[in-house]
Design a protein that fits this description.
The protein contains seven helices and eleven strands. It is α/β, with parallel strands linked by helices and 257 residues long. The strands form four sheets. The protein has a three-stranded parallel beta sheet with strand order 3-4-11, with helices on both faces.
Amino acid sequence: MKYVPDATADRQFESDNTVDRVGVDGLLSELDEYAVEQSLQIKEKRDGEEITVTALCVGPEKAVDAVRKALQMGADKGVHVIDDAIAGSDAVATSLVLAEAIKKIGPVDLVVNGMASTDSGMSVVPAMLAERLGLPQVTLASVVETQGDQVRIKRDNEGSTEVIGATLPIVLSVTDQTGEARYPSFKGIMAAKKKPLDTYSLADLGVDASQVGLSAAWTQVEESTARPPRTAGEIVTDEDGSGATALVEFLAGKKFI
């Protein structure tokens, strides 16, 4: 899961053109909530089996709130990777840290991701994770069905739908079409306070600081321009019956019609 700046907040870049993730309110990426939901649904459908849903997040100190949200939704365990050296990491470095954290958590049957993050939207981390973990990837699922160690997904393309099957263990990513994510209940919020939440550093994962951060990034923002302030709207009056004509001319001039 990813901790992202709140879209309704005043988002901005730092002086080094990295996203400010400390001085702005953040939350669990909405697209990752669908991944949490599908993980919980898979567990619920296999009632009676010993299944643990672990919520994993890499980010600054406040990113623990994203982990807590997943625990409140119903995840069994949380893991937060925090290290100052990670700041400025791109998707390549992020996938490395996530992969090593997954290996440390232990053998897994299913790694579930959202289709993209709501801040950068690159949609490449699931594929990178699959490569680093040596697992097959099944991505962009709009429907997920499981039976035993078999997973079948539906992927919607423009004008067609693909049905893809795979055998666990796999890396899976789901879209926002898989179903509305649940809201944490009061019972879930209270229960989350007693659930285990581990914190890892890069040293705990065996990742060298030179492999992450802005200096190791394959991609970076070179320049950004602040959004211009909104200007006052133009009022079209209809005192002499010419309002309709003036409105059409305005819309046509802006190429809205």
